[in-house]
Amino acid sequence: MMGDVTRRGSAAPGARADSRSAAGIVGVRALALAAHRLDRCRSIDEVAHVATSTGVEVLDAKHVAFCRIDQDTCRTVVVEPPPVAPRAVWMVRASYRADDRPALRALIRDRASWVAHARTVHDEPTVPDDPDAGDPVEVDTLRELDAATALATPLVVNGSVWGQLYAVRGRPGPPFRVDDIARAEVLAALVAGAVARVDLEAQVRHLVADDPLTGLANRRIADAEAEAALESGHETCIVMCDVDGLKRVNDELGHDTGDDLLRSVADVLGRASAALPGSTAARIGGDEFCLVTVGRRRSEVADVMAATIAEFPLPHGAAISYGIASTAVTGSVSARHLFRQADTAQYKAKRARARALRSLVPAAADPAVTAERVLVAGTAAIVAAQSGVVPRLCAFAAAATETLGGSAWAVLTRRNPAEPPSAVARGGSPAELGVESSTAVVIHDLWQVEIGMSATAATGEVVATSLDALAAVAILGAR
């Protein structure tokens, strides 16, 4: 996990012996302090800043860069202090291929440090083909930067070159020497250990906190963020989301496509979260997602959700239904209650959307098709219901109302045929304004079932007969 230190006698070409004991003492102290600071780092960015600031002090450098090497390409992550010269800024932002940089290729292959010098100890230009000057490409780079000398040390993590520390000294400045390389390699070893630890911690956090399919936070993190948001005292909103059409996509196109659809939903929620700083997007499970915001007005959250969903529609005709709950409306409540309120709002939005879509569909040409669908849905609901007349009639009424595109349903009973019925259960939600609907009434013995129907639903004797038959099955089968 630690970087390899160049052994005595194997110093990089061009390095000379040094005996600056005072600088060495300062370097040891700085390295000891760096070890403590690196131990407290919790991100690669923090490690990079400690590495570069320590490198400037330990190596008496003008600039030190913390670089990532991936697939033989090197890019700069952090430079301390940040350069201001336009040419230097451009070079820092560029990436470099090992095929174009022989010194980088050797560093990756041999896991060994290198030095290069554009100026001598007397601040005179090094001569071409000077073996002590180092790689010509690196020497030319130093001349472009008007720098005197450079040093690069690999960061070896888990046996592979993960990156490098790159240091330069300006003019006039003495060339990097053997002792500088030794200090750089000790620092690189400390930094590589910190990188390995931070990377491992990040992997553990990912396993514990992230949903493996979408990369969003999981339910545990969403709950924790909601609790923290409520404790802050700021307005807290919870957005509960559901995917309309996932089952159809899974059935018709396969579960791999369904997984892709869930990842698309995660992308939409991620974009909404990015537009609401401080929020957390999470996958609760299955096709349920949520967004937790803190310090954001409900109107702002609603606007962002509406705009994001409109700008990034889901593939395969799927869509997102969502509901929002806010402490500005509910007052001081628990996180569980706020989630429940948002879930209720989401359910109403989902049903309203489904009814709106069904209202746009013309009535079925053949009422027999509608009757068959009612029988299939109603029978399945009755079989799955709990025992007892009321649960079975409620299941039948809900399934029939859903199939016929209605809004609300009710189950009523009377003591005797002469009395008016009284409701024992109701379900669904009131019809939306402007959406035409009707009600089918089924009476069997002392029971009465009211089933909501869309104005465009197919009707007729065959549909009425199927409803009567299902009511009889629900009542007689419960006895």
Entry keywords:
479 residues, alpha+beta, Beta-Lactamase, Alpha-Beta Plaits, 3 domains, elongated, disordered N terminus
Please give the structural blueprint.
Blueprint: H1 21-39, H2 44-58, E1 63-70, E2 73-80, H3 86-93, E3 95-97, H4 102-110, E4 114-117, H5 136-145, E5 147-157, E6 160-170, H6 178-209, H7 219-232, E7 236-244, H8 246-253, H9 255-274, E8 280-285, E9 288-294, H10 298-311, E10 319-326, H11 327-330, H12 335-359, H13 367-384, H14 389-403, E11 405-413, E12 422-428, E13 437-444, E14 447-454, H15 461-476
Antiparallel strand pairs: 1-2, 1-6, 2-3, 4-5, 5-6, 7-9, 7-10, 8-9, 11-12, 11-14, 13-14
Helix pairs in contact: 1-2, 1-6, 2-6, 8-9, 9-10, 13-14, 13-15, 14-15
Question: What do you see in this structure?
Answer:
The chain is of the alpha+beta class and 479 residues long. The chain folds into three domains: 21-205, 2-Layer Sandwich (Beta-Lactamase); 219-359, Reverse transcriptase/Diguanylate cyclase domain (Alpha-Beta Plaits, 2-Layer Sandwich), CATH 3.30.70.270; 367-476, no CATH class. Helix content is 47%, strand content 22%. The chain contains 15 helices and 14 strands. It has helices at 21-39, 44-58, 86-93, 102-110, 136-145, 178-209, 219-232, 246-253, 255-274, 298-311, 327-330, 335-359, 367-384, 389-403, 461-476, and strands at residues 63-70, 73-80, 95-97, 114-117, 147-157, 160-170, 236-244, 280-285, 288-294, 319-326, 405-413, 422-428, 437-444, 447-454. α1 packs parallel to α6. One of its GO terms (cellular component) is plasma membrane. One of its GO terms (molecular function) is diguanylate cyclase activity.
